[in-house]
Write a structure and sequence with these properties.
Layout: H1 3-21, E1 27-32, H2 40-56, E2 61-65, H3 76-81, E3 87-91, H4 114-129, E4 139-145, E5 150-153, E6 168-171, H5 174-182, E7 186-189, H6 195-200, E8 206-209, H7 211-216, E9 225-228, E10 237-242, H8 244-248, H9 252-260, H10 263-287, E11 291-294, H11 297-306, H12 309-320, H13 326-337
Parallel strand pairs: 1-2, 1-3, 6-7, 6-8, 9-11
Antiparallel strand pairs: 3-10, 4-10, 5-8, 5-9
Length: about 350
């Protein structure tokens, strides 16, 4: 072997050894934050999770929250996909029709126990949707649901199905929009951040929202009456994702460490948090003297009959979106809801 060949080989070995010994690159992800300060979803789920990511990567991956939202609340998926921010939390229903496969997990009457809904969503996503490129432009890290939806009004009692006729009700998802339509109401599709102004200006008669969001966004100042729907009106699914280029800057070992504290772990955290927050919010509304109506069995049966077309409509949409057997996915999701909370 010539001197130059031996020298080149030695240099290559030394370079490889040096690369192997080099510490993994430190990465700071810019997280677009739009949740209000102190809101439970941010303070008790996102913040601890961010801290856990830094811990398991030994500080090599840090997440820096922006002082205000990048872009609009409804555009967070594209904000991450386009690299305007590296990471964000996206309420998928704020982009109606864009992620129809997920909507089957937002159908009504599935459960009013959040400790079951979020774990069921992640398990269903992993089994049926993870390899379907449902989110082709981003790297999904967590998929979970917020608190389950009930309906709050400026005074109208919506525990009686006939009272929905003509009511202008804020909706935040395709499923909720269709429920309101099938019950004779008028859906108003707006983010929760706009509900206070709409209700105080009497532009809406009420809003579908989780109880904890009602208090978190101080909406009980204008929405004084709650209708509790057994099984709930459904929930909304949240995606936390990372820009692919930003994710590629993270070492494979740190990527794996992040995944281990994301996914199912975050879903369990979300379920426990939102179950606790819903119970606390309802108790606080009672303490404040707010009116709480509970839909009785007869009215609930009437509501289920009126909104029955919703499931068949979703099955057709999911098939059109490329999901081969949406009924199988729906059955699996509902079976997961019947499992004891972990």
């Amino acid at each position: 072997m010539s001197f130059f060949n031996r020298s080149g080989l030695l240099a290559g070995v030394m370079l490889a050894a040096s690369a192997a010994a080099a510490p993994a690159q430190e990465v700071t992800l810019r997280y677009s934050n739009w949740l209000p300060a102190g809101y439970a979803l941010d303070a008790q789920l996102m913040e601890p999770w961010i801290a856990e990511i830094e811990k398991v990567t030994e500080g090599r991956v840090k997440i820096q929250k922006t002082p205000k939202v990048v872009g609009s609340v409804a555009s967070q998926y594209d904000v991450v996909a386009d690299g305007m921010a590296d990471m964000s939390l996206m309420v998928l229903s704020y982009a109606p029709g864009r992620f129809p496969q997920v909507e089957g997990m937002e159908l009504p009457f599935a459960s009013d126990d959040e400790s079951r809904t979020s774990p069921a969503v992640w398990a269903t996503y992993e089994k049926f949707l993870a390899d379907q490129e449902v989110f082709p432009d981003v790297v999904p890290l967590a998929l979970f649901q917020t608190g389950v939806f009930h309906v709050f009004t400026t005074g109208r009692d919506l525990s009686v199905v006939d009272n929905w006729a003509g009511a202008k009700i804020r909706s935040s998802s395709p499923s909720l929009t269709r429920i309101i339509e099938l019950l004779g109401g008028t859906p108003v599709n707006k983010p929760v951040s706009e509900v206070y102004e709409l209700a105080s200006g009497r532009m809406i008669d009420g809003a579908t929202t989780p109880p904890d969001a009602l208090l978190g966004f101080k909406l009980d100042d204008v929405l004084h009456s709650m209708t509790f729907v057994p099984g709930s009106l459904g929930s909304t699914t949240v995606l936390v994702s990372v820009n692919p280029d930003a994710w590629a800057r993270i070492s494979e070992a740190d990527q794996q460490a992040i995944r281990e504290v994301s996914g199912a772990a975050v879903a369990r955290m979300s379920g426990e948090l939102h179950r606790k927050e819903t119970e606390a919010a309802i108790a606080e509304m009672q303490n404040r003297g707010r009116t709480i109506h509970r839909m009785n069995d007869a009215e609930l049966a009437r509501m289920k009959e009126r909104v029955a077309p919703l499931t068949a409509e979703w099955l057709d949409k999911a098939k059109a979106a490329g999901l081969q057997n949406p009924q199988e996915m729906l059955d699996f999701f509902r079976a997961q809801l019947d499992r004891p909370a972990q």
